[in-house]
Design goal:
The complex is a heterodimer of chains A (107) and B (124). Chain A is mainly beta and 107 residues long. Chain A is 0% helix and 50% strand. In chain B, strands 2, 4, 5, 6, 9, 10 and 11 form a seven-stranded mixed β-sheet that branches. The chains are: A mainly beta (107), B mainly beta (124). The interface between A and B is medium-sized, with 23 and 22 residues.
Amino acid sequence: DIQMTQSPSSLSASVRDRVTITCQASQDISNYLNWYQQKPGKAPKLLIYDASNLETGVPSRFSGSGSGTDFTFTISSLQPEDIATYYCQQYDNLPLTFGQGTRLEIK
Amino acid sequence: QVQLQESGPGLVKPSQTLSLTCTVSGGSISSGGYYWSWIRQHPGKGLEWIGYIYYSGSTSYNPSLKSRVTISVDTSKNQFSLKLSSVTAADTAVYYCARARLVGATNAGEFDYWGQGTLVTVSS
C-alpha cells in the first residue's frame, strides 16, 4: 500500500494567515493526488484534484502543488469558515489511500 | 446535481453482516465514466477506502477487507450496495458512498460527490 503522511497533524493559525500543509507519499505517485476538506459531522468535500486543479466552485484561496512524492496544499488567506480537517488522497495505485488528516484551528 | 444517499441499519450485531445501500439521484450509474465507491471513517479517525464498482459490475476491494466485502450494483434502481460480513466492534464507523471519476482505462480518480454518511455501530 502507498502510505500518505501529512504534516502537521494539527495547526493553529489566525484569520488572514497563509496556511500550508504537506503530504508525502511513500513512493512516486506522479500527480495522482487529491485534497479534501471535512467539517465536523459532514462528508469530505473535494477541493483540489490532480495535485493542482481547483474543483469547480472552490474559492481561489485554496491551491495545491507538487508531483512525485511531495505535495503542498495552501490556503492563501485563512477564513473562519476554513476550520476543518484536511486530507490528501492518492489514486496512483490500489488500494486508494488517504493521509491521516490535518486539523486546522483558528488561533 | 448528483446526490448520493446511504441507507441501512444503524446497529448490527457482532458476527452478522452489515448491509448498506446507496441511492444515486441526478445522474445515471449506467452512463459510465465513474466508479461507485464505499469509504468508511472510524470515530475520530481518518478515511479508509473499502472498494468500488463500475456499472458493468467490475469491482475492486481494499485487500484489508477483501475477504469480507461484497459490492454490487442495481442499475435498474440506480443503486449500489455494500455487504460486510462477520463484523466486529472494529467495524463501527461512519460509512460513506461516493462517486469517483474514471481516469484513463481503469483507474479511479477523485471522489467528487459523497453521501452524507451513515453511522453503523456493531454491538450486541
